[in-house]
Amino acid sequence: MSAGVGADVEALCSKCGDVWHVVVAKVGEQIVKVQCKQCSGYHRYKSPHGAPVEKKLPAATRPVREVKPPVERFEKPAVAADLTKPARTYRASDLFEVGERIDPPQLRPGRDRDR
Q1: CA atoms within 13 A on the CB side of 27
Q2: Closest to 83 (Cα-Cα) out of 99, 60, 103
Q3: 96: three-class secondary structure by DSSP
Q4: Please, are residues 102 and 90 in contact by the beta-carbon 8 Å criterion?
Q5: In this predicted model, what pLDDT tens digit does every residue of 56-78 receive, in sequence order?
């Protein structure tokens, strides 16, 4: 019978080398995550006896994962700026309208950097 969640179990800690752990998570009867009693680190369960925990299926029999399209790093802006109007200098006290172009304040070397 496999140890339940919260039970003490022997596992190899890659951080401190200790073997006494507490079971934190299981998938079915398989222990998948433990917490080291010495250093309090969380990690996957590794048997101290070197026995493999679970063998992976050969690549030919593994289920095929759905390939998602890549996420665009820079998305198109939700509002298009009116490029016919000149850009305004930004001031916190001013009011601006959606789509208006503004110039951000420039940092002056040594003065505004630490604010």
Answers
A1: 6
A2: 99
A3: coil
A4: yes
A5: 566 667 677 787 777 666 666 67
